Hints:
The protein starts with a strand and ends in a 7-residue tail after the last strand. The chain is an alpha/beta fold. The model has no long low-confidence stretch (mean pLDDT 90). It has helices spanning 10-22, 43-48, 63-70, 132-141, 152-161, 188-196, 291-305, 386-397, 402-407, and strands at residues 2-6, 27-31, 73-75, 80-84, 89-92, 97-99, 102-105, 110-111, 123-125, 144-148, 167-171, 201-202, 209-212, 216-219, 224-227, 229-232, 236-237, 268-270, 277-279, 284-286, 319-323, 326-332, 346-353, 361-368, 374-381, 423-425. The chain has three domains: 2-109 and 238-305, FAD/NAD(P)-binding domain; 111-235, FAD/NAD(P)-binding domain (3-Layer(bba) Sandwich); 325-425, Enolase-like, domain 1, CATH 3.30.390.30. The longest helix has 15 residues, at 291-305. The chain has nine helices and 26 strands. Helix content is 21%, strand content 26%. The chain is globular, with a radius of gyration of 23 Å. The strands form seven sheets. A six-stranded antiparallel β-sheet has the order 21-22-25-24-23-26, with helices on both faces. Strands 3-2-1-7-18 form a five-stranded parallel β-sheet. Strands 9-16-10-11-12 form a five-stranded parallel β-sheet.
Amino acid sequence: xxxxxxxxxxxxxxxxxxxxxxxxxxxxxxxxxxxxxxxxxxxxxxxxxxxxxxxxxxxxxxxxxxxxxxxxxxxxxxxxxxxxxxxxxxxxxxxxxxxxxxxxxxxxxxxxxxxxxxxxxxxxxxxxxxxxxxxxxxxxxxxxxxxxxxxxxxxxxxxxxxxxxxxxxxxxxxxxxxxxxxxxxxxxxxxxxxxxxxxxxxxxxxxxxxxxxxxxxxxxxxxxxxxxxxxxxxxxxxxxxxxxxxxxxxxxxxxxxxxxxxxxxxxxxxxxxxxxxxxxxxxxxxxxxxxxxxxxxxxxxxxxxxxxxxxxxxxxxxxxxxxxxxxxxxxxxxxxxxxxxxxxxxxxxxxxxxxxxxxxxxxxxxxxxxxxxxxxxxxxxxxxxxxxxxxxxxxxxxxxxxxxxxxxxxxxxxxxxxxxxxxxxxxxxxxx
Length: 432
């Protein structure tokens, strides 16, 4: 059996690794249009903050490792020109052909803005690994920089640039930072940190146009500003134009898949950022551009291809990061999106501390349904809260109440963990 995987990022690489486990005798070919595989999406930010210093650190996996440890035929600098669904054939840009028994599309996504080309000199998407060197050069030359999008990527970029003595403006079309994952009061300290660093945040401002000449003019319904450089950090979208004549697409441009991640063509699957998945709290289809979503769908599809058809259960959307001194985490529904939840919800604010020896407070907002089961949680602290995020993710997956979470046996070590219980507090306070 020959399985061809298109895309050499998290989804494609994890599919190849899982397939080698489930189908040890199969021929696995992974093709990637860039010169390297395994690019870390936040790598540019880590470079800007000097947390990594070498280009090789931008990649978590290599062609050589995949070939040596997983016996995967990795073909870099290889781009697909067209797909033959009846003949199970990929036509390559170099004129070659590649037949398959199963095909997995894992081509990911990118920041896009209307018709702006990725070849633009002064308007850049930071998700393009091959643009690393010219992007670094443009950033070094720029004095006034606009970042379009105040989600995870946008705030990462703002943090990376803040120490470089540049004028930074942050644009966001929604009414809140990190709108998809947090309610306003849980990110209020982050907003204050941006203000302290004199980074204007233009909320509720949709960028209407980007005009490029010797500089870039950013036009919204409220202002027009010129910048030396514009960094696209808006919500990622897949570019599925290559497949649209052969495969069914959804209205938002994602590839349609069934419960088993199979496309409208037999033996052709799509995963990760190319598709919609089920958001489990509301059971609605949603576009979720997260690495954990890519990895889950990779494992699901590998089991199905191996002869063990497996439905994708969907995601609770756990997400977390560290920005401007604050650790933030979220899983499940927010209060703002609870209107889509089929039950009445209640919210509570809790507090605990990072560990038995680290008294840094952790502020938590939980969302509960009518049975008092946890359906959402948001965490905020200056200390690392990611172990708690994992615990709340498990609790929501298992439909636990807060009491059941507190009673569950978990690892404890005073330097790293705090024995749960949580203390209930009055509605939001976020003072230090």
